[in-house]
Amino acid sequence: MAGEGLFFTGTVLKNNRNLLSEENSRQQLAMQQEQLEIQKQGAADKRKAQRQEGFKKSQSSYDLSSIQDPKLRLALANKVKELNKFSGDNWDNDDPEVQSQIQDMRSNITSLAQYASQVDTKMQLYNPLNEESNNLRYNQNEDGSRIIDSNYDAIISEMESGTFDLNSRSASFKNDFDGQIKKEDTIPAYKAFFTENQGDFLGSDNNTYHGLLPGSKEEFLNDFKNDHVINASTNDFKSTQAEKTYTSGETFEIDGHYYTGLEAYLLEVEGQRNVDSIKESELARFIPGSESFNEEDHNKYVDYLGGKIWDRESKGIKSRLTQRAEPTKEEKDKITQEDIDLYTGPSKANINYGDVEFKFDNNLYQDVTGSNIKVSLTPETLIEGQGQLQETFNDEYISDVKEDNRPVEGKVLWVGITSDNRPVATVKYGSGQYLIPLATISGKKFKAGSTAYKLYQLASQDVTKGESTTANPAPR
Fold first, then answer.
1. CA dihedral 401, 405, 411, 417 (to 10 degrees)
2. Are the CB atoms for 179 and 236 separated by under 8 Å?
């Protein structure tokens, strides 16, 4: 259709938006968001500042400049580092256990620093480069190294591995360091042995004695050798006193002359003469560290010296009886030297049997009438010297036996001893009393331990005064 135009037939909407207002709103929202971000950043900065302040306060510092030993200083620095890491990680942790652990770590480091300072001081004192240290004598390991150095190395190792026990190491501190210095004794160590090894002991006779205890000699010789044989690795003595004892500290008297230990050894063991003028070069084989040192000669001399000292020192220590053993029944019954001295001693009361005197003191004879002991008699049974009594016995004997020559029976009245110390028995026969040798009667007829029994033992052993167990036969 020519000339026709286009016509809009839809609904026309009216734009009612307030663009200005929307812009303002957008700006306000942006400002609010910016303000919020600022607030968030502020809070974050504040928290960061708080963390930094808290971390700073949680950190500990220790002045370790006084400790010169680098290993000790490093070990302590690592302990401080461990503490600061743990406390920094837990700066805002209010758990009581955590706070207690932090406090314990701090206390331990303080104590450890004090201990390390003491170790540092000792190691400076005993440093081989210290001139005064070189004048000291140290306990050594088998390889010749100082035990002090081994103890120090062990302490460092324990600190580094975390096995260090402060309480244990503090307790052993004195022994770890000062205790490894050899003390310079002025009195030979062996002197104490002879005092400490005296006491009461039971002898082979069951009596109690006081003196050097059994086995003391073997113990002394072993101890002496251990103390005076040098360390094979270092050619060093255990102490200067041991060295002095070994070289020239002892003197011995031999045939009225005095010699040192080495001189005495050369004289008595090797048979050398004029040893008091021997040259030092000839003694070099005994001296550790010399080019001529001979270990075999050294050991032989130590053995000799120990024995020589034992002989000298023990000579004046006599064992003394302190208590006699309770005698056995057999020993109580047995005649003693005391009994023999009593029976063969003087008498104050005698009864004469012809020319023979019978000791009639109460403690020198025993009445055995009540035992009803019977014996066989002949004229030859009577002891000689009874004079008229012998004739009386012979007459009555012949009257009783006629020509039979058989023994007759007599009764034992007393058992005793004559003035010339012949044990006898008084027997009753017929109208008279006569003396016969006690040995002709069985000892079983007397009570063990009685005077009669002991006199029978005297008769059987043929003992007389002045002998301990055996004597000359009594005169007949």
1. 140
2. no
Residue 122 · residue 72 · CB < 8 Å: no
Q: Which two tokens stand for residue 274?
A: 């004029």
Length of the chain: 476
Give exposure, 429-447, as e/b (b: 16+ Cβ within 10 Å): bbebbbbbbbbebeeebbe
320-323 and 208-212 beta bridge pairing: antiparallel
Give 108-143 pLDDT, tens digit per residue: 888 888 898 899 988 888 887 877 676 677 888 877
How many helices (H) and strands (E) the chain has is answered by 16, 12
The residue behind tokens 């839809």 is: 10
Query: What is the torsional sign of CA 400, 404, 409, 414?
Result: positive
Measured CA to CA, the distance from residue 415 to residue 205 in angstroms comes to 32
Q: Tell me the pLDDT tens digit for each residue of 402-451.
A: 878 899 999 999 999 999 999 999 999 999 999 999 999 988 889 888 99
User: Is the CB of residue 139 less than 8 Å from the CB of residue 147?
Assistant: yes
C-beta separation of 190 from 224 below 8 A: yes
What is the number of alpha carbons within 13 Å of residue 334 lying toward its C-beta?
Answer: 10
Alpha-helical regions (H) of 18-146: 19-58, 70-89, 96-125
- What element of type H or E holds 475? none
- Residue ranges covered by each domain of the chain: 70-180, 190-320, 330-461
Determine the Cα–Cα distance for residues 469 and 476; give it in Å rounded to an integer.
20
Residue 418 identity: T
